[in-house]
Design brief:
This protein is of the alpha/beta class and 420 residues long. The chain has 15 helices and 14 strands. α6 crosses α7 and α7 runs parallel beside α8. The protein is globular.
């Protein structure tokens, strides 16, 4: 390859060039991917119209599994909505990292890049239960966090893989856990707190369509992960106290449990869908990036546990997520984006053939992770990845209804299901 051709190949396409290159992908999905990839910075003018009584802002003590790009948390808007109702889950980003600006333009909030308005946006709305406390005195906003149509329960953002320094290298959950402990002492959320908060949240008719429950991995128990399973069962039973039916719209994003553990979860709680994240769809990179998962379960073991979950939860209720783009991390990731894309989609097809859809989150190098100083792949790469995963779901007749744009909002590839 000549130097001129090599330089042309490696030049990153602009936003407008990517939009023109993929007319079959809605422009708003490409906007979402790029905003997730680059982050946002709120101007002072934009912040002048933020009302913490109306809008969801970052609240000290709110439980989320991961942190953000900045070293410190500030009371800024949680995230944004595009005009098609799509959530853009992104984090405030320092100006030196070249984020989109959120600015006030003609009286409306807008995404701005190089002085050009890319899209007008809205802020997430604060639910009423955020103003209340449980009977034990814990703010309900510290029990359940809210997305536009989803209630999220993070039982713990401490991952025990980090106890032996074997956490996933893109992850900053333990740094965020330490910061949360410093801020509020992380009071233990008891089943009664969960049940009371759910009861209040459901008093806002039509606001929420599902629950998502997650936690950092817990290795303890008679069998590996038994303690984690016990913790989920306790919390899910507390949620279920507010429903007349045994099952309720819900998703668990958890460790790769064995069949006995999964059967307990299904039989003893109202959980309806199960997601266990392979994180990296390549065995060699998985072993490097996720050493704890590799040592305790292994790539093939994790994959087979997810597939076997179909026998318990049923087709259409099991999935696996991954961190799209981290397969290109240095120094042991793929060197070329086309090689990474081909390998990732081949492995995603292997899962799809078995009945398990895979979806991704955009890899963002986070301030508290070992990969904090790395760089995400190009916008072109992520658009191809989203399109490729969507095409696989079409080919194999797979759905991700429990993790679509309304129930989650973090996966640009699952947003494409709206085209069907």
């Amino acid at each position: 390859m000549s130097l001129a051709l090599k330089q042309t190949y490696e030049r990153e396409l602009s936003f407008d060039e990517v939009v023109a290159k993929y007319p079959e992908v809605p422009r708003l999905i490409i906007v979402k991917i790029d905003v997730q990839r680059r982050g946002v910075h709120y101007t002072d003018t934009a912040l002048s119209v933020v009302d913490p009584k109306i809008h969801l802002v970052r609240d000290t003590g709110t439980r989320e599994l991961f942190g953000g790009r900045a070293q410190e948390k500030k009371s800024l808007p949680i995230s944004l909505l595009l005009r098609d109702g799509t959530s853009v889950i992104t984090s405030p980003t320092p100006l030196e990292q070249n984020p989109y600006l959120v600015d006030l333009v003609n009286g409306r909030l807008a995404l701005v890049d190089n002085d050009e308005v890319i899209e007008y946006v809205e802020l997430w709305r604060r639910p009423r239960y955020y103003d209340l406390k449980t009977s034990s005195g814990i703010p309900m906003s510290h029990v359940l966090s809210a997305r536009p149509q989803r209630l999220s329960l993070t039982l713990s953002n401490y991952c025990h893989f980090w106890t032996k320094n074997q956490g996933c290298l893109y992850c900053d959950s333990n740094r965020d856990s330490k910061q949360l402990k410093k801020e509020i002492g992380i009071p233990r959320v008891k089943p009664q707190d969960i049940s009371e908060t759910v009861r209040e949240a459901l008093k806002e008719p039509g606001r929420f369509s599902t629950f998502c429950i997650t936690s950092g991995s817990i290795l303890a128990g008679n069998e590996l992960f038994d303690k984690e399973v016990d913790t989920y069962i306790e919390a899910l039973q507390a949620i279920g106290e507010n429903f007349k039916t045994k099952k309720f719209p819900s998703q668990m994003v958890a460790t790769a449990f064995n069949e006995k553990q999964l059967q307990r979860l299904y039989d003893e709680t109202g959980i309806m869908s199960y997601t266990s994240d392979l994180e990296v769809l390549n065995e060699e990179r998985f072993s490097w990036i996720c050493p704890g998962k590799a040592e305790n379960v292994g790539y093939q073991g994790w994959k087979q546990r997810v597939i076997r979950a179909l026998d318990i939860f049923g087709r259409g209720n099991v999935s696996s997520g991954f961190v799209g783009g981290v397969e290109l991390a240095k120094p042991y990731g793929f060197i070329r984006e086309d090689e990474a894309l081909r390998s990732t989609l081949e492995e995603a097809e292997s899962l799809a053939e078995s009945g398990v859809p895979a979806f991704f989150v955009v890899w963002v190098p986070r301030a508290g992770s070992p990969f904090h100083d790395q760089q995400s792949p190009s916008l072109d790469y992520f658009v191809q990845l989203a399109s490729g995963l969507h095409q696989l779901r079409v080919k194999y007749g797979l759905t991700v209804d429990f993790d679509d744009y309304r129930r989650c909002g973090n996966h640009p590839d699952t947003d494409l299901s709206r085209l069907l």
